[in-house]
Structures are given as structure tokens and as C-alpha cells.
Design a protein that fits this description.
The protein is mainly alpha-helical and 282 residues long. The chain has ten helices and two strands, in the order ααααααααααββ. Strands 1-2 form a two-stranded antiparallel ribbon. Keywords: Membrane, Transmembrane, Transmembrane helix.
Length: 282
């Protein structure tokens, strides 16, 4: 999320809603506003509470699965190096390509777009052959197969928890309820400055609740705060420079590192992930 978008979403629009409550003409209705507002707010609270709870659960699970995937990849690299030292470079390259490919896509869709790179890792694992009959190499070979199965399960779990909880029809209902509730709240203004400020704050809070739901459901927070930095440890373990996709800087997810790192020059992103790797030296 760019800095400008953050300011618009989290500061400017709430201020506009507050000013709306202060300067919009007063109006009254003939029906019982408090009773209807209470009914609408109850329905709104139940729906939003359900969606936020579900989206937050998915968010936390998704975060855990991403950490598991990173840990499994690191373990696979270390076990592969132990089983067959000559395969270390090839396995490290395959893991490197998989992580780079995964960063080409949003978190919610990277699993289904990285099958080719993932299959290459699995192929190398299955081709590992201990260079001698030492017990530790045999044990590592058995264990790496277990880790491989865990990695399959983790990718499937990521695939299941990645989709949005709220669909378009859900958002239509939520927005309609919010607009209705906003209309009723504005009708409750008495002309006193305090009541107008309170109602303006409530309108801003309603908007921010929906914005928060959208950000959590879209995994924007996770993409900004965790995903990019979490995978950098994998690059360190496999002996590669850190990699950051250019859109990570453009969207303000992270600040440019003070050390050497890799990035990419895309030919036609996001319509194509064809790119040229570039090393940025500090």
C-alpha cells in the first residue's frame, strides 16, 4: 500500500465523514429513527463481527502456514546437503527460483502460480541419493520425505486459507447496511456541535471497520508486515543474496535495504512475469 493510499484510506476519508456530519443540512423523518437504527446496527454488528472473526482466523492461520513453508524449505535444503552434498547447489537454486517466483504474485494467488518451480524442488528431493551408507544420511533421507509430505500439506492449507472470506454479495449487503445506518445517524443530529461530532466519529468508525475488514481479508497487512521479510532468511540459508520484487518498493511495503540485494526488471508486469534479474550494490 502506497503512502498516499494509506493517507486517503485511513485519514482523509474519515475526516470527510466527520465534516459531513458537521456541515450537512439537518433533516428529520416521520418514522421511529432510534428503533430502526438499533435494528440496523444490530444486524450490521452481527455480520461484520462474523466476517472479521473469520477473516482474522484465516489471517492468523495463513501467517502460520507461511512460516511453516519457510521452515520446511530451510530444513529440506539442510537435509539435502547432508544426504548428497553434490546436490546442494542444485537444490539451493531450485528453492531460490521457487521463492522468487512466489514473490511475483500476491499472497492469495502465489501457490497456484508456482507449480512448475515447486515440482522442480520435489524432483530433486526424489532424486537424492546418499553418497555412503552412514546412518545419519539414511535417517536424513527418510526424514526429508516426511518433510516433503508436510510441505505438500502446507501448500494445500495455504491454498484453502488464501481466498477472501467476503464475496461481492457480502460487500453489497454490508455497504447497504452502512449507508442506511449512516443516513439514520445523520437524521439523529440535534444541531448541537457535540452531537454532530459524535455522529461524525461514529460514521468514520463504520467506514474504518469496513476498511479494516477488507485489508485483513485481502492479506494486505500480512503482505506488508511479514511475507517479504520472512522469506529473506531462506535466501541467507541457501547462500543467495536477498531478493525483493520492485513492486515491494513501489507499494511502500519495505524500505530499500542498506546492503546488496537482488531485484528484477519486468518486461510487462503484471501481465507477464518475464524478467531480468539485477543485483543492486550498496
Amino acid at each position: 500500500m502506497t503512502r498516499l493510499r494509506k493517507i486517503i484510506l485511513w485519514v482523509l476519508i474519515p475526516i470527510i465523514l466527520l465534516l459531513t456530519a458537521l456541515i450537512a443540512p439537518l433533516y428529520k423523518t416521520d418514522f421511529d429513527i432510534p428503533t430502526i437504527a438499533m435494528t440496523v446496527s444490530l444486524v450490521f454488528t452481527i455480520l461484520v463481527g462474523f466476517f472479521i472473526a473469520t477473516a482474522t482466523t484465516n489471517y492468523l492461520n495463513f501467517n502460520s502456514y507461511l512460516a511453516d513453508e519457510s521452515a520446511y524449505l530451510i530444513t529440506i535444503h539442510n537435509l539435502g546437503k547432508l544426504i548428497q552434498p553434490s546436490a546442494e547447489k542444485k537444490l539451493g537454486h531450485a528453492i531460490d527460483q521457487y521463492i522468487i517466483a512466489s514473490l511475483d504474485f500476491p499472497l492469495i494467488s502465489y501457490i497456484k502460480n508456482t507449480d512448475k518451480e515447486f515440482d522442480e524442488i520435489i524432483k530433486i528431493i526424489d532424486d537424492l541419493n546418499p553418497q555412503d551408507k552412514k546412518i545419519k544420511r539414511t535417517a536424513a533421507l527418510n526424514y526429508i520425505q516426511e518433510i516433503k509430505n508436510n510441505l505438500f500439506q502446507t501448500r494445500q492449507s495455504i491454498l484453502l486459507t488464501a481466498p477472501r472470506t467476503t464475496s461481492k454479495i457480502h460487500w453489497v449487503v454490508l455497504i447497504m447496511l452502512t449507508l442506511l445506518l449512516g443516513y439514520l445517524l445523520l437524521a439523529l443530529r440535534t444541531g448541537e456541535i457535540f452531537s454532530q461530532i459524535v455522529i461524525g466519529i461514529v460514521l468514520g468508525a463504520l467506514y474504518l471497520i469496513l476498511t479494516l475488514l477488507n485489508e485483513v481479508d485481502n492479506d494486505h497487512f500480512l503482505e506488508e508486515s511479514v511475507a517479504l521479510e520472512d522469506v529473506q532468511n531462506i535466501f541467507r540459508v541457501i547462500g543467495k543474496l536477498k531478493y525483493y520484487p520492485p513492486h515491494a518498493f513501489e507499494k511502500g511495503y519495505i524500505k530499500e535495504p542498506l546492503e546488496n540485494y537482488r531485484t528484477a526488471v519486468y518486461k510487462n508486469y503484471p501481465y507477464s512475469t518475464e524478467k531480468k534479474m539485477v543485483v543492486v550494490k550498496k
